[in-house]
Amino acid sequence: MKPSFDASQPCLQARQLERYLGSEEARVHVLRGVSLTLDPGTVHAIVGPSGCGKSSLLYILGLLDNPDSGELLIGGMPVLSLIDEVASAKRTELLGFVFQFHFLLEDFSAEENVMIPMRRLGKLSEKEMGERARHLLDEVGLGAKAKRPSRHLSGGEQQRVAIARALANDPLVLLADEPTGNLDSINSDRVFALLTRVVHNHHKSLLLVTHNPGIAEKCDWVHEMKDGLIMKTTENRPKPAA
Fold first, then answer.
1. How many whole angstroms separate alpha carbon 205 and alpha carbon 195?
2. Predicted TM-score of the model (pTM)
3. What is the pLDDT confidence band of residue 239, given thresholds at 50, 70 and 90?
């Protein structure tokens, strides 16, 4: 699969995003000029109290909402000016989503769930979709359970299927909303390790919203939000030797 983005560019760039919610009489300024750059092979955490704008930011970065002003580029391509139909196609091609709850179709097999985004994109044959789904399930350690209905998988296994599904169209950016929030500590660590391995090995970027400080401190970058602003950014990656 050959994505249509410029590999020399950052995976994602957000510049001065502003977002208001509510009526003119009771407007809430939920994003106040947020800027963010996600380079290939990096994992970013967004942390902050409830209501600080984390979800609003994630919706805009995921092309699920539009800001009132600002710029958003994915792979160097401006995406906010796209018409709805084109934006939807680019969302399917360039972005992968992982949520706190896996949202699998319970009566579908693991393989069939992973094929859903590929069917939506419509670039592969039935045989190619099946082969890619099985390959991705192998990557997340579930190749032997590809044909099993998702309702017969454990919670940790279901979330790993959700990660394989998020990777189905070889996206440039992964966006995750509390991806380990519904798992015990062992499965939480496994899922996070899997996500970071995929990002680092395949030069993607991951932005996750989390309330788990243990997960956040393992990310390459931590962005602390408050009142619609990124107040502080911390790099956790070891510095190269001089």
1. 10
2. 0.86
3. low
